[in-house]
Amino acid sequence: MDIAASIVKPILARIIAIALTGTGTAGYATRLFDLLEDIVADTETPIDDRAVLPVIRALRTALAVPARTDN
Predict the structure, then answer these.
(1) How confident is the model at residue 65 (pLDDT cuts 50, 70, 90)?
(2) Binning pLDDT at 50, 70 and 90, where does residue 21 land?
(3) What is the Cα gyration radius of the chain?
(4) pLDDT tens-digit profile of 22-62?
(5) How distant, in Å, are the alpha carbons of 23, 39, 47, 49, 70 from that of 43?
(6) What does pTM read for this prediction?
(7) How far apart are CA 6 and CA 9, in angstroms?
(8) What is the pLDDT of residue 23?
(9) What is the DSSP letter of 1?
(10) Whole-angstrom distance, CA of residue 67 vs CA of residue 5
(11) For residue 22, what pLDDT is reported?
(12) Is 34 within 8 Å of 65 (Cβ atoms)?
């Protein structure tokens, strides 16, 4: 049991440190906004493109989340 704890503790500490840093948070935000953009783009109605995509762009700018570069 002590061996498992000694192995798991540093791993969890590293994961938590990454999640709490700006780099980790920015990565999650980028992926979330990318996912939302994909969902909106896949719908058949153009209304959500005109309503939701500008909001996502504004949030990206306000939160300094980089835009997708693989388009």
Answers:
(1) confident
(2) low
(3) 18
(4) 666 677 888 888 998 999 889 888 888 888 889 888 888 88
(5) 31, 7, 10, 9, 20
(6) 0.60
(7) 6
(8) 65
(9) -
(10) 39
(11) 64
(12) no
Please count the other Cβ atoms lying within 10 Å of the Cβ belonging to residue 9: 10
Q: Which residue has the tokens 């002590």?
A: 2
3-state secondary structure 2-71: HHHHHHHHHHHHHHHHHHHCHHHHHHHHHHHHHHHHHHHHHCCCCHHHHHHHHHHHHHHHHHCCCCCCCC
Angle at the Cα of 66 from the Cα atoms of 68 and 12, rounded to 5 degrees: 100
Report CA-CA distances (Å) from 31 to 5, 14, 25, 38, 62: 31, 20, 10, 10, 16
Determine the distance from the C-alpha atom of residue 28 to the mean position of all C-alpha atoms in its chain, rounded to a whole number. 2
| 62 compared with 12, residue with greater pLDDT | 62
